[in-house]
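Sample pair:
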Amino acid sequence: MFELKHIIGLLFFLLSFNSQSQEDSADYDLLKAAYDGKTHEVVMLIKDSTDVNFKDAYGCTALIYASQQGHIDIVKILHFNGAKINDKVRYGGNTALMIASKHNRHQVVNFLIKKGAKINEKNSRGLTPLHYSTAYGYDTTTDMLLYYGADISIKDNDSNTAFIISSFTAKVNTAKLLLDYGAKINEQDKNGLTALMIASQNRDFNFTKFLLENKANKKIKNKYNHTALFYSVYNNDTAITNLLLNDSTEKNLTKLIDLAYKNENYIMAKLLKEESTKVSLMPVFNKLILSYGSNFSKDDLLFNTAIGLHDSKYLLNFNLGFDTRYKARKILVKESENNFFQFHERRFIFYTNLEKEINLYRDAVSVKGCYLGFKEGYTFGNYRGAEEKAVSKFLHIPQIGLFWKNQNFALRTAYEYYDLGIYNHSPHHLSLQLNYFLRIGKEKIIKKEINLL
């Protein structure tokens, strides 16, 4: 009797499970039919009492799928049979109206609004249907939303209005629509960026021109005190810079000139200097130089390390360095006219160095040129196993050389008159050096990024 009860219970469980599976299967069939636009199948499934508000694992209903694909007849059928028009998907919180706006289904948008869809509803990121339609430049859908009362002043979680988003995606016609309905052209996001700054950041000449023609304010600053002109100078965009400088009342451009020099944009620096009433004479140090190399003649071999700063305005290098032999070297010390002593000498040189570079050829990735330099140093040494003192003296070392460099490295070779005061040692030296650059004084900058996927 005990076993029979268990068998009967198992049969009831299997029958109920099978019935539930069939119901779930029908629910998913409705979702697929709505997505695929199979109107007749949707009607038949609804007649079979399939749940029109069933949600899949993502929280999507048949109405949301039909709205996404633009199947207006199925949308109408689902609504007539009780589909919830303002339900949100589980991930992201989009409604059917948001999804229809995002995919430019303006017939669906029109129907949903008339049937009570919330036109200013926000998703989890604070985006409304209007944010989506303007982002993708859907003029018809945008015009429809605005006509039915979409609020152009609503900001998403990053303080972006629909107009700010239109500036990022550079949709001129959509931006015109928004302005016609009263959008504020100088609205700022949470970091103080305006549409004009964003257009300048994105190097969009046409949208920048459109904004200026509609009286966008060039003087507004973001939280780092940067204007739209800052972004065009930072990007080395001379076309937009000229556009922003036209009729500008801002004539003290010293900071922007130094920014152009810091980024080694010399054509931009020249352009700004022509417009500015003031020019700073201070150098612009933009790189720390770490150097390693050798210095040799037919009689000697020295190795050197140095650290320095590069001034990108005047093309000057200021270095502190140290030269030495890695092991003692045999030298002769003249005692008298015909009398010499031989020693094993260690030699050390500390020096400061100033170099002036002359750029001869420049392309997008590298620079080739020559340089003139002067080292001021002090040398001293000792003789291995001897009490005799080695020569100590100040050095005055002229240089002339060639270089190749890119943003990170430089190779340099130079002739140096390097007189160490050692008998019968040539003062004519050749140096080879590898430089590594570390960028210093990087400008703080806010870069606008919008991802509506």
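Strands lie at 285-296, 301-311, 316-324, 329-336, 339-362, 367-383, 393-405, 409-417, 428-439.
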